[in-house]
Amino acid sequence: MSVKINRISSDVARELSSIMLLEAKDETLKHVTITGCEVTSDLGLARVYYTYMGEETLEDVAKNLEDAAPYLRTVLASKVDLRHTPELRFIYDDSIEYGQNIERIINNLHKEDKEEKE
């Protein structure tokens, strides 16, 4: 990926985080954390990775993000200097949960090992 595309991806992620936290009226969006963004080389699509820490189900959050995507894209267009603002596709990022699960397994193994030695 080129330096320019990386910079644009980073700008899109940063601006979307700001928009969702400060400007979105939907309270659900305020609890969404953008973990990354990949913009295609033709700038037609931005895959936006997110996590969510809140009360809603992941299905409801995904629906809210899908419904808010046109609004977010419009606001994003006014904040990022691009000729064409990419379409936003939101993808849940389960890597944090995956990492926490691995950490929990390792901790349990250490605890079992300690108990066996005692």
Describe the structure.
The chain is an alpha+beta fold and 118 residues long. The protein is built from four helices and three strands. It has helices at 3-22, 27-30, 58-79, 95-117, and strands at 32-39, 45-52, 87-92. A three-stranded mixed sheet has the order 1-2-3. Helix 1 (3-22) packs across helix 3. It is elongated, with a radius of gyration of 18 Å.
Explain briefly what this protein structure is.
With 118 residues, the chain is an alpha+beta fold. The protein is 58% helix and 19% strand.
In terms of topology, how is this protein built?
Layout: H1 3-22, H2 27-30, E1 32-39, E2 45-52, H3 58-79, E3 87-92, H4 95-117
Parallel strand pairs: 2-3
Antiparallel strand pairs: 1-2
Low-confidence stretches: none
Q: What structural category do the secondary elements indicate?
A: alpha+beta
Rounded mean pLDDT is 89
Percent in strands:
15-25%
Oligomer: single chain
Which sequence of SSEs, written as H and E, runs from N to C? HHEEHEH
CATH second-level architecture: 2-Layer Sandwich
Count of DSSP strands: 3
Count of domain modules = 1
Shape category:
elongated
In CATH terms, the superfamily is K homology (KH) domain
Features:
GMP Synthetase, Chain A, domain 3, single chain, 118 residues, 3 strands, alpha+beta, elongated
